[in-house]
């Protein structure tokens, strides 16, 4: 068995300063020498499986498969930068595509991707093991990437092997996130402000007790017959594999070193324990992933506040019209995934709204979460982290990421469909996802799964088909106003004064080697009603109310396991209809894509509640029977859901693109910004051009994705119109003229944020990029605030951030995160500037804002703000952080693998692309 260890650490594992002195001690040098004794390595061939991809399936997942590290490896990484085997060997190929895609051919794709064929050629086998000595499962790892290829002769053995391999590669990360899901991260990993913020973000929306977690398992099993029982058996076998590895690594002392650094294990005596995993841990893990990527909706209170601000500014009728024009809930210029004109009405504006419960002006307060804070739990940084967590948890602008490009065989060179797709889940070390292949009775798949949930492949390929997902964001969360009675902790439910349930989690922490944050503590307290947790307090028409949020997937975090089980079953998925049927069993909000050798398909998943007639999903409604979801049962949080046929779906459309854009005509998503300019346009424009030309190849489709990944959306789709206004007469000011010249040259060169040459760490057109980064927020404010007024402008920016450039730390994804240009005012600027220019606009804003609609006044505003931007230094635009010095433009944009453990990696040049990505073209079908 090869030497595989454990790498990872808290969401803020502050090792550098602490470990520098730690490394100097003689005892650690002795410890390193002892721990570096390798275990015996065996070699064998993996079992062959049916594979219909003909060597044309590829995938990539940086930084590397091995996400575990022993204490010795962590110390060596911190001191000398050395890497454990397979910890970052996928990072280089992933990064190199940014400069290598222009000359890409089908034959060179695997220079930048892994060969995702089933099995491992005998000469590429790095190791073979029989986990826990079992005879019914074998784990083979390949030489190139160290990916586990799990082959079982029994179902139990196969899943046992999957659990064992998961723990080998991600044990510490799995442990971190089971504690995040329970709101116990600080107690487990340390009291750093970022840890406090993370546990608060999730606990606010999913304050589950142990009984709640178990109830979700029981419900999922009971509701799904034989498949439910099989899922439970699979989960138990998977857990047995995880726990077998915990025992083996503990007794063999090759467990993740973070357990020592956080005080859970003693490096000398081996005292301390690593708790076994239990089945409720899987639900806790699932709740985190679902909240991060698959829970669309929320934001109704913020929507109400901006509507009230608009009505205060313009009056009720005109204010509502202005609000609706900025909301763009069904914008005719929005890029669509299902673009054949088919309509899928959902969450649209009712003719006459019923049951709305808009707050009285100035009455809204956010419900506190943290109580009785002491020490560093009450520090300024803790307060700031808590505020950020609250904003994230209550916003509709969630981490909606990932993209997909799928082309029908009718337009490809081979006649077979081609897909380039994957989830954009951020960049972490170790990565949230892990790669694996699973072959066993009823299971045949390879791809990525979230660590700790890898009993099935969640995104990947089967024998003759591949599938992937993007976040969709349709609204499955509603806000109810419950009228208070007796006191602030009782409310009227169907006319009866009912007590709220108080749920609490008390955490405390003390300094460790990993996290030197001083001691502190606090209690997180959530008040729950039948309509969900309380998020705000307010008055409505003078009556005291609590605003609660009800999510259709709340108390149903385990339900999606059935859909993933089906996707891994070769006897279930035999074509696009079966794929769509499997996706219908996933209750989180995702766009699912499919390709085999003959067909492509798309399906939008999620439990979309059937709302009462007249309810507008954009705003809070009264918590009364008349406005509840149809046939809603508060005991089980079940209701009637829209049928599968009402979800956007399609088979064999000419092409599909998705970058978290609008799914289809009349289908409203919760986040704002689905207008005339969206990052989805970057894919749409490129793929549409390829399809029109025909003869699409894998290389050409990868090139389209990679080209869009380097594009500045503002520069490609909005800047030319801004320059058109400025150039409507001769620019006489020398500063403005110089800036215009630089910006125009950048647009002509392609408007990309790309290095001058690979590894230069300097952008081509760097000054133009600096100018636009400085100009955008200035021009947006100068364009819109005078007309909207400061109150309404601020309210709208709370609904939709102005900008999300790669270096913008204020965006939903933060800085160094790769994902960019999803949330911003690009559509508003585009529509307004076109209107001022006198060009046609479908779905225009209610008024003209730039210069009050005067072209000359608008031009003056643009030139004035442009001159200010041109004079803004790079050190001001890119102020620097713990990684980058002030003014370092490339570094400010760069992608960082954020440490969730003790191993660090180098930062790479910015790309706006999926974290895990597949390139597939099947040659035949069963």
Q: Describe it for me?
A:
- The protein has 926 residues and is of the alpha+beta class.
- 35% of the residues lie in helices and 17% in strands.
- The protein contains 27 helices and 30 strands.
- The strands form 5 sheets. It has a 10-stranded mixed β-sheet, covered by helices on one side. Strands 7, 8, 16, 17, 18, 19, 20, 21, 22 and 25 form a 10-stranded mixed β-sheet that branches.
- α5 packs across α11 (279-293) and α17 (680-693) packs antiparallel against α18 (698-709).
- The longest helix is centred in the first third of the chain and has 28 residues, at 225-252.
- The radius of gyration is 27 Å and the shape is globular.
- The two termini are 36 Å apart.
- Residues 1-48 have low confidence and may be disordered.
Strand and helix layout:
Layout: H1 16-22, H2 26-35, E1 57-60, H3 71-80, H4 91-100, E2 114-115, E3 125-129, E4 137-142, E5 148-152, H5 155-181, H6 185-189, H7 193-205, H8 210-222, H9 225-252, H10 258-261, H11 279-293, H12 300-314, H13 316-327, E6 343-346, E7 365-366, E8 370-375, H14 380-394, E9 403-407, E10 418-422, E11 428-429, E12 433-440, E13 443-450, E14 459-461, E15 465-471, E16 477-485, E17 487-493, E18 496-499, E19 501-509, E20 520-529, E21 532-540, E22 543-551, H15 561-567, H16 576-583, E23 590-596, E24 600-605, E25 621-622, E26 649-651, E27 655-658, E28 665-667, H17 680-693, H18 698-709, H19 713-717, H20 719-726, H21 734-749, H22 766-788, H23 790-799, H24 826-837, H25 855-870, H26 874-877, H27 889-893, E29 898-899, E30 917-920
Parallel strand pairs: 5-12, 6-28, 11-29, 16-25
Antiparallel strand pairs: 1-2, 1-30, 3-4, 4-5, 7-21, 8-20, 9-10, 9-27, 10-30, 12-13, 13-14, 14-15, 15-23, 16-17, 16-22, 17-18, 19-20, 20-21, 21-22, 23-24, 24-26
């Amino acid at each position: 068995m090869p030497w595989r260890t454990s790498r990872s650490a808290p969401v803020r594992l502050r090792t550098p300063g602490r470990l520098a002195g730690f490394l100097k001690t003689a005892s650690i040098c002795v410890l390193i020498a002892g721990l570096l004794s390798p275990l015996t390595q065996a070699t064998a061939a993996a079992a062959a499986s049916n594979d219909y991809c003909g060597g044309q399936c590829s995938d990539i997942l940086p930084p590397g498969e091995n996400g575990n590290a022993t204490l010795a490896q962590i110390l060596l990484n911190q001191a000398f930068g050395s890497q454990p085997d397979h910890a970052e060997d996928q990072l280089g190929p992933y990064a190199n595509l940014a400069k290598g895609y222009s000359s890409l051919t089908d034959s060179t794709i695997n220079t930048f991707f892994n060969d995702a064929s089933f099995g491992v050629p005998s000469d590429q086998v790095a190791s073979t093991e029989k986990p826990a000595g079992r005879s019914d499962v074998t784990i083979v790892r390949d030489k190139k990437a160290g990916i586990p290829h799990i082959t079982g002769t029994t179902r139990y053995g196969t899943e046992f092997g999957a659990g064992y391999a998961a723990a080998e590669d991600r044990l510490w990360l799995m442990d971190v996130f089971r504690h995040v899901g329970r709101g116990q991260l600080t107690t487990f990993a340390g009291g750093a402000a970022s840890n406090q913020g993370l546990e608060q973000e999730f606990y606010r929306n999913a304050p589950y007790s142990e009984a709640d977690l178990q109830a979700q398992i029981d419900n999922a099993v009971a509701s799904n017959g034989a498949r439910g029982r099989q899922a439970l058996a699979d989960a138990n076998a998977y857990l047995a594999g995880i726990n077998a590895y915990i025992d083996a690594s503990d007794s063999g002392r090759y467990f993740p070193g973070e357990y020592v650094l956080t005080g859970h294990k003693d490096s000398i005596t081996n005292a301390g324990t690593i708790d076994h995993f239990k089945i409720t841990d899987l639900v806790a893990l699932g709740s985190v992933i679902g909240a991060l990527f698959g829970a669309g909706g929320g934001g109704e209170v913020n929507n109400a506040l901006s509507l009230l601000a608009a009505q205060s500014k313009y009056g009720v009728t005109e204010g509502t019209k202005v609000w609706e024009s900025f909301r763009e809930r069904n914008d005719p210029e929005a890029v669509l995934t299902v673009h054949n004109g088919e309509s899928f009405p959902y969450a649209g504006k009712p003719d006459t709204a019923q049951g709305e419960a808009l707050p009285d002006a100035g009455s809204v307060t956010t419900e506190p979460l943290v109580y009785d804070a002491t020490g560093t739990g009450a520090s300024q940084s803790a307060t700031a982290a808590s505020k950020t967590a609250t904003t994230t948890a209550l916003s509709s602008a969630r981490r909606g990421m990932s993209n997909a490009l799928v082309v029908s065989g009718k337009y490809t060179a081979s006649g077979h469909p081609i897909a380039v797709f994957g989830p954009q889940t951020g960049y972490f070390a170790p990565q949230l996802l892990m790669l694996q292949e699973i072959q066993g009775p009823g299971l045949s798949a390879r791809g990525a799964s979230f660590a700790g949930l890898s009993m099935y492949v969640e995104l990947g390929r089967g024998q003759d088909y591949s599938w992937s997902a993007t976040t969709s964001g349709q609204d499955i969360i509603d806000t109810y106003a419950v009228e208070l009675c007796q006191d602030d902790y009782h409310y009227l439910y169907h006319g009866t004064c009912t007590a709220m349930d108080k749920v609490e989690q008390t955490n405390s922490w003390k300094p460790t080697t990993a996290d030197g944050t001083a001691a502190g503590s606090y209690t997180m307290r959530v008040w729950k009603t039948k309509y969900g947790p309380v998020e705000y307090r307010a008055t409505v028409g003078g009556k005291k109310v609590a605003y609660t949020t009800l999510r259709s997937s709340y108390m149903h975090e385990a339900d999606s396991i059935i859909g993933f089980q089906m996707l891994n079953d070769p006897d279930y998925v035999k074509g696009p209809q079966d794929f769509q049927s499997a996706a219908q069993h996933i209750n989180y909000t995702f766009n699912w894509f499919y390709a085999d050798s003959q067909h492509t398909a798309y399906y939008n998943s999620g439990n979309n509640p059937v709302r009462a007639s007249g309810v507008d999903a954009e705003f809070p409604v009264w918590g009364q029977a008349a406005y509840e979801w149809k046939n809603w049962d508060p005991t089980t949080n079940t209701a009637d859901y829209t049928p599968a046929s009402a979800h956007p779906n399609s088979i064999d459309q000419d092409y599909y693109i998705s970058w978290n854009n609008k799914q289809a005509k009349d289908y409203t998503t919760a986040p704002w910004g689905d207008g005339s300019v969206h990052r989805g346009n970057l894919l749409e424009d490129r793929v549409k051009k390829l399809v029109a030309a025909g003869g699409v190849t894998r290389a050409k489709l990868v090139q389209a994705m990679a080209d869009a990944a380097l594009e500045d959306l503002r520069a490609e789709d909005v800047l030319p119109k801004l320059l058109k206004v400025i150039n409507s007469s001769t620019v006489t000011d020398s500063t403005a003229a110089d800036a215009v010249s630089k910006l125009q040259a950048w647009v002509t060169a392609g408007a990309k944020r790309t290095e001058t040459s690979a590894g230069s760490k300097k952008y081509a057109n760097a000054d133009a990029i600096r100018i636009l980064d400085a100009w955008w927020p200035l021009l947006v404010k100068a364009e819109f605030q005078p007309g909207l007024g400061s109150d309404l402008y601020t309210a709208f920016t709370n609904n939709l951030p102005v900008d999300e450039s790669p270096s913008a730390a204020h965006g939903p994804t933060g800085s160094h995160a790769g994902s960019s240009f999803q949330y911003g005012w690009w559509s508003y600027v585009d529509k307004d500037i076109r209107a001022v220019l006198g060009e046609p606009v479908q779905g225009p804003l209610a008024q003209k804002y730039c210069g009050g609609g005067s072209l000359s006044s608008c031009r003056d505003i643009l030139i004035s703000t442009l001159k200010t931007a041109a004079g803004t230094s790079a050190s001001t635009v890119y102020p620097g952080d713990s990684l980058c010095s002030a003014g370092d433009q490339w570094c400010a944009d760069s992608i960082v693998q954020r440490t969730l453990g003790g191993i660090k990696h180098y930062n790479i040049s910015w790309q706006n692309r999926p974290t895990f990505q597949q390139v597939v073209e099947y040659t035949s079908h069963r």
